């Protein structure tokens, strides 16, 4: 436990050192002593989310354009290597069972680091074995062997498979139809077919379909209507579900859908699309995050009165980045509320890491062959029998 604390303290401590009074755009700086107290109270419940802590912190730093010292990056790589399961995929901590959520977090964290050392940690052949072990005949995925099915798993699987060049049509057979069956009468997507539409699941399902090139099969207009109705008139932030309170983390899960929808509708030939703005109130979201979601001593949060944490820090910043940057590499329009120092780096709306890190990882892994596909043919035949 102490080791874990020192691991995150290292990242955080370096962060404090690199801030060194440069400017005050985001006061994430907090005394190290407070930080250690914070972790010692919270570490136990995060014991199965340790790759997530790496991702949340590294992604927050890349959005803030803070360089990660090489020694820290290497330490994080070695820690994540210990989280990689002998059966493939990554676990929530060393010695735990592989699980799709920390697998997504670990692969994203390694792609943010983006060094040869980081890329080489991922055992792609074993990762493919793991993805097959959680694939279900109806196209869905369980989160871990013997675990629950929901649409997060399809996104985590599609995200890591596409980044590391192990995505095959066979692995995602029936997945499109299964995800489509999660879109309900509200227009958003639920975790499994038949439940209430929810921001997190809607993002996961839509982003997975974008990766699979099938997002046009959603009812895009109904989805658009649902998501824009989740931005709250008074607060400017987003709620996760109908009749719920605003929450800073949905700044990404909901607002992150708008770039995906913009692109999908553009591909469908929709002619009325703006070339300067997403279809939500970008300034209002920035006001909510900057004015209501910052802890005065550092870090970001759900809503005023709640405590800061690394999850909300990551997703508030990710949502702020979406609200500041319209477009893509070719067409870019920025809307920065307040001082120029408020500007964050852009984030990729599908993977939620910086776009150049996505391009770099894809380029790197494209040079490597897709692991033996035939090996899994029998496994698939077997699973079809159940
Ligand atoms: Zn939240």
From TrEMBL:
Cofactor(s) it depends on: Zn(2+)
Keyword S-adenosyl-L-methionine: no
Note on cofactor: Binds 1 zinc ion per subunit.
Subunit architecture: Heterodimer of FNTA and FNTB. Heterodimer of an alpha and a beta subunit.
Pfam (any one): Prenyltrans
GO cellular component: protein farnesyltransferase complex
An annotated Gene Ontology molecular function: protein farnesyltransferase activity
PANTHER family per UniProt: GERANYLGERANYL TRANSFERASE TYPE BETA SUBUNIT, PROTEIN FARNESYLTRANSFERASE SUBUNIT BETA
Top-level EC class: transferase
Function: Essential subunit of the farnesyltransferase complex. Catalyzes the transfer of a farnesyl moiety from farnesyl diphosphate to a cysteine at the fourth position from the C-terminus of several proteins having the C-terminal sequence Cys-aliphatic-aliphatic-X.
Source species, domain of life: Eukaryota
Prenyltransferase alpha-alpha toroid domain segment(s): 39-353
Catalytic activity annotation: L-cysteinyl-[protein] + (2E,6E)-farnesyl diphosphate = S-(2E,6E)-farnesyl-L-cysteinyl-[protein] + diphosphate
Family: Belongs to the protein prenyltransferase subunit beta family.
Protein name in the entry: Protein farnesyltransferase subunit beta
GO BP term, example: prenylation
Keywords noted in UniProt: Lipid metabolism, Metal-binding, Phosphoprotein, Prenyltransferase, Repeat, Transferase, Zinc
Enzyme Commission number(s): 2.5.1.58
UniProt-listed InterPro entries: FTB, PGGT1B-like, Prenyltrans, Terpenoid_cyclase/PrenylTrfase
């Amino acid at each position: 436990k102490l080791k874990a604390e020192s691991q995150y303290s290292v990242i955080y401590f370096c962060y404090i050192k690199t801030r060194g009074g440069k400017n005050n755009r985001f006061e994430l700086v907090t005394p190290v002593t407070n930080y250690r107290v914070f972790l010692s109270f919270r570490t136990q419940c995060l014991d199965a989310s340790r790759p997530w802590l790496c991702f949340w912190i590294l992604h927050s730093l890349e959005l803030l354009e803070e360089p990660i010292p090489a020694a820290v990056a290497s330490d994080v790589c070695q820690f994540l290597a210990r989280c990689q399961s002998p059966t493939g995929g990554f676990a929530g901590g060393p010695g735990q069972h592989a699980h799709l959520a920390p697998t997504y977090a670990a692969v994203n964290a390694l792609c943010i680091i983006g060094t040869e050392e980081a890329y080489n940690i991922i055992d792609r052949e074993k990762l493919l074995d793991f993805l097959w072990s959680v694939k279900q005949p109806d196209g869905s995925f369980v989160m871990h062997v013997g675990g629950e099915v929901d649409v997060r798993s399809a996104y985590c699987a599609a995200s890591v498979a596409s980044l590391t060049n192990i995505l095959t049509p066979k692995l995602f057979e029936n997945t499109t139809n299964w995800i489509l069956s999660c879109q309900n009468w509200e227009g958003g997507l639920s975790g499994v077919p038949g439940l209430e539409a929810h921001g997190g699941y809607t993002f996961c399902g839509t982003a997975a379909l974008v990766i699979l090139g099938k997002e046009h099969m959603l009812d895009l207009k109904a989805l658009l209507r649902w998501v824009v109705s989740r931005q709250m008139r008074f607060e400017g932030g987003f709620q996760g579900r109908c009749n719920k309170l605003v929450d800073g983390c949905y700044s990404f899960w909901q607002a992150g859908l708008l770039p995906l929808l913009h692109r999908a509708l553009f591909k469908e030939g929709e002619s009325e699309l703006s070339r300067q703005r997403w279809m939500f109130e970008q300034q209002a979201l920035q006001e909510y995050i900057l004015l209501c979601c910052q802890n005065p001593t550092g870090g970001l949060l759900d809503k005023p009165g709640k405590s800061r944490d690394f999850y909300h820090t990551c997703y508030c910043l990710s949502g702020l980045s979406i609200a500041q940057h319209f477009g893509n590499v070719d067409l870019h329009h920025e809307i920065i509320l307040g001082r120029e120092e408020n500007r964050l780096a852009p984030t990729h709306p599908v993977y939620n890491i910086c776009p150049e890190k996505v391009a770099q990882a894809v380029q790197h892994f494209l040079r490597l062959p897709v692991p033996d596909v035939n090996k899994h043919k029998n496994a698939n035949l077997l699973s079809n029998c159940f």
